[in-house]
Fold this protein.
Amino acid sequence: MKHIFVILTLCIIGCSSSIKKVSSNQLLLISFDGFRADYLSKTDTPNFDKIVEKGVVSEGLIPIFPTKTFPNHYAIATGLYPENNGLVGNNMYDPEMDAKYSLGDREAVENPDWYLGEPIWNTVEKAGKKAGTMFWVGSEAPIQGMRPTHWKRYDGSVPHQARIDSVLKWMTNSTNPIDLGTLYFSFTDTQGHRFGPDSPEVATAIQQADSLVGYLMQQLQKLDSDNSINLLIVSDHGMVELSPKKRVVLDEYISTEYINIISGSPAVMFNVEDGKEEEIYKKLKDNEEHYVIYKKHDIPERFHLKNNIRVPEFLMIADDGYTINTKNFFDKRGLDYPQGGTHGFDNSNIKMDALFLAHGRVFKEGLKIERVQNVHLYELMANILRVQPAKNDGDFSKIKEILK
């Protein structure tokens, strides 16, 4: 009898060691880059539809301005507007650092000096919990001198399902599961740029995203028996159709040799050389058609952009579908340029609205909410994960209605 008791005890211990040990809710944050809010209505999306039916959907996730990839992913991660999180564009110049930043510059991307604020993975780790980032803006740099428990340097060649498998392995590890995971996919944005938001190629990309969501849900059914993993499925911005008939040629108004463009269309940020600031500004202001131009100190407060040293002297914002650049730039690309789509327009443009879905045991079911700003998501994530949020620009009261 004693031997039987020992065997049963060992069996119980052995079995319990294979069960995921979670002290609180887990959260998986997923981004489909460039997935516009209305993409769910463009083609059949049975798996997204199940998320909508059993969870929460917003009419749109309002991006911060500029409506570019890096500023918005980092705004979601920190709950900070660009003037406070440091990422005022995909391309920047910092006069104090005397350094340039671009999303393709690996050394800059991994330099923590560019990133202000506290990303959610740091907040989680500081609380004694664990995070794992499978590609997210900022997660490749040791911000505040620390990194998440698991992190991966961006590699677009990693198969999409393999990304899901890796993060779910981290989250369902029997001995040391992470509390927060992130996933990132770029293909919807890529197809939107190449072919435009209304193209059949984008419809195919939407279906591909839907298939990945289906695969994710199948894996969760197998691996997450206690339903502790909650999902936030978002994107960073929308997409607008471009046309070669919609050009703003700077040379028609100014001498372009005096300007130094830091960040390109449709939110053009530039400095002016040789004391030509007032002359350049006046000429562009006098011919303000299909764009608006601001001096830095006149940039509207709603953009939460101007109070940062990395913002150049001038900002031009193209009207919907227009492209701003120099004659030389357009000439090199031919009469058919531009085609496809882009983003970066005023974030009041509903075509810039991004995707927002929520699913899991902490969220209400079958709820549709109005448009919501993405800076509120940091506070939401901190609440779900039961960690103390760092200082941020979000407001939990603006998003708490989606929780049970």
Q: What stands out?
A: Residues 1-19 have pLDDT under 50 and may be disordered.
